[in-house]
Fold Protein SIEVE ELEMENT OCCLUSION B-like.
Amino acid sequence: MSTHTRPLAPAPGTMQKRKERRMFSTSDDSAMMKQVQTTHAPDGREIDVKPILQIVDEILIQFIARSVEGHEVKRDQDALEMTAALAEYDMLDSLAFIINKISCELSCKCSGGGDAHASTMVLLNYLSSYAWHAKVVLTLAAFAVIFGEFWLVAQLSIENTLAKSVALLKQLPDITENAISYKPHFDALIKLVKAALDVTMCIVEFKELPSEYISEDTPPMSVASTHIPIAAYWVIRSIAACASQIASLIGMRNESISSASEAWELSSLAHKVNSIYEHLKQQLALCYQYIDEKRHMEAFHNLIRLFETVHIDNMKILRALIYAKDDILPLLDGNTKTKVSLEVLRRKHVLLLISDLDLSQEEILILDNLYKDARSRGETHYEMVWIPIVDRATWNDVNRQKFEYLQSTMLWYSVVDPFIIEPSVIKYIKEVWNFTKKAILVALDPQGRLSSPNALHMIWIWGNLAFPFTSEKEESLWKQELWSLELLVDGIDPTVLEWMTTEGKYICLYGGEDLEWIEKFTTTALGVAKAGKFELEMVYVGKSNAKERMQRMIQTFATRKFSYFWPNVTSIWFFWARLESMLYSKLQHGKTVENDQIMSEVMTVLSFDGSDRGWAIFCKGANEMARAKGDTALTCLRDFERWRLRFEQDGLVQAINDYLQQISTPHHCNRLILPGSTGGIPQKVVCAECGRQMEKYFMYRCCVE
């Protein structure tokens, strides 16, 4: 039997297609849009298209596409169960007629290379009463019937007598025997089918967007709505082209195939449909972004209302803040390293430690000591939960390892995964609790009420004495305080507190990192003590926000033995953290340097720290104190003989204060550097030396040590 070579569709049809292709590639889709819109007259019927899409995907992708691509087609148990469930889908009964009608139209009108646009318009008219998403799904279903029947007969004709007889009557080609020659043809066909299915899925997704969060006239949705009709047109037209290719195989049993032009035709359509898909996908992403923002805003306002409501316990609040579902255990117990539910926090005082991944080891160490102390005291028992605030956009393996390391160092609870914290909660934490970068410690009582938006400052100053961390407790603690050495070093070094109670002993706290000044100052001070025959203990307290440099200073002090010093960076860090906390606490209670001595003295010490040189505070007992900046303090000590008599009469502290008054000059330049995330910057700051209002500047610092 002779073998002939002919194209898949008659030449006139091919010429017609090329003509149409030129027309649609050069004309604006808006003209065609009007034609398409005239066919659209939906009657409001609702169709659940998801089950149909599942069947279509099963036929076209899971079976035929995988076979064409050379993959083994497997049916796992899930797929079998899904097919069984779809068999119970009642709506297929009512849709079978329209699917069959479209199949007939695709088989008859689309064969022989007729007018593709006209065929597409006929199909759209058939489907006029359906919504856009239903039109494309039903058309795909009709094509799945055609392609599925063709593929069944073609595949089974090798071993099934009935299938072989049907294939003979239709004169279908042996696609198994001639797989190589048919592969480009079917590859192009499958590529177009997949593109059409992608766009269809996209159109269905638009339909299923929640109307309570996005409406038809909302910009992302309204833009998409203008493109969906034309997208539906090109999907249906693509399916018509695919059906035409299947129909053209009838009668080709003994003929070879020249598929280059037809494959190109399908590829061209696939390119067009893929472009539509990319555009719709972008619009869909914008819609989801809009919906997420609306949901997050709704959840944000719900959280605000939740905190305004009285609750019998703290579970509603904690579920809203940490994790609302019951599908996972959201907390990791730092002690046992096991996952636990939020129930472990029910009706307990809870401290939420909120930070980024730059939480320092010093902060963890101090909190660890306080947490252990609290657990040993029944009357001040509370639980603590670490909630890390991270950026999903920059999250990587390094961040994951950092999170897990920090988590491993904590004895208290932490969330099992940073991303279980909802964006609305992060928004609340940042906007209501004013979290920026520096760690905060939010205190909640057993009913979930807010005790303090940041108890970290209280706990730094007074430790667990601040329990239950309310503003009232904070105020009562301040009423018991005076500016004293005990307030400065409480909880840091018991040795200094012992010196304070020793009769006749003077103490000098000094700081800075100018080694030349430190050497001169300590030598001079010890010389004055020897000359005045009094006992002087000197304590180096370093400088704030300079951990690496302080580590080097500690090593230098250990070698050169200038004076007594704190042998770890944590103590130095904690000294300055407590001072900053005192300032913040006073600001929160509306205090100013004019009406509060402690605040004035704290700001003075912080301004000393901002200078390039050193500084010193001389103390006797708890309350006698004299202070000066580095050069002034050094000058004062060098002039000891000038005020020696006053020292012998009134003591060291009073004598220094009097002499400092005598040698003070109008010329000075003081700086007060406050961390931007302290929680509140005072509008007015008075100079520690002259009492005039200081000018305000902004400083941005990157200190890589």
Notes: The first strand starts at residue 4 and ends at 6. The chain has a mean pLDDT of 83. The radius of gyration is 40 Å. The CA atoms of residues 353 and 579 lie 20 Å apart.
